[in-house]
Amino acid sequence: MKSRQFDTVPREERNKKAFHAAITIFKERRSRQHVEFIHSALKYVKEFGVHKELDTYKALLNIFPKGKMIPQNTFQRIMLHYPQQQNCCVKVLDEMEWYGVQPDKEIHDIVVNAFGEWNFASKKIKRMVYWMPKLKYSNKYIDRRHIEGKDLSAAELSGHALKMMARDPASTIEYIKVKLFHQVERRWFQSFFSRFVQESSKVWDIPKNISLGI
């Protein structure tokens, strides 16, 4: 059992150093059972206190051999090449995502060097590298202090929702009223633009009251 390398470590000595030592010992033995070892290691990341350490996930992903599992022909690209290894890699990345560990360019290169540029596992890390920094400071919970005990309009509530979606303090909210020719009631919509978008597209020139012949 690959978990013995972690089970035999005394509880008072279970830390980052001991966890990485177990990975080093496994790599020195050049065992082919790297999938089983990684699955076992993931069960102990929190117990060893390394579940939020980027270096630990890099060490686990570096266990995969480089170049061997990259597709070499069209058939291999269509099929899921080395499915157990790729699913294992995705599980490591899922663990990172669950604990909010931000990926970097190095961990992206580790996955690409192991599985190729556009495989199942490499697509996963590309999405993480793109989206996780954008959502790092997002807040999915509305601040109750802004709404409790207040008679807020629909526009004010939507403004609070937009502030939750985009955390850039330099952004501004545009409130635009729209009147349809066949309707008496005026409607509105709100948009949230960053300063970069404002400067590049001149969105501040949009009139606050427009009529549409719809």
UniProtKB/TrEMBL annotation:
Pfam families: ECSIT_N (PF06239). This is Uncharacterized protein. It comes from Pristionchus pacificus (Parasitic nematode worm). The lineage of its organism: Eukaryota, Metazoa, Ecdysozoa, Nematoda, Chromadorea.
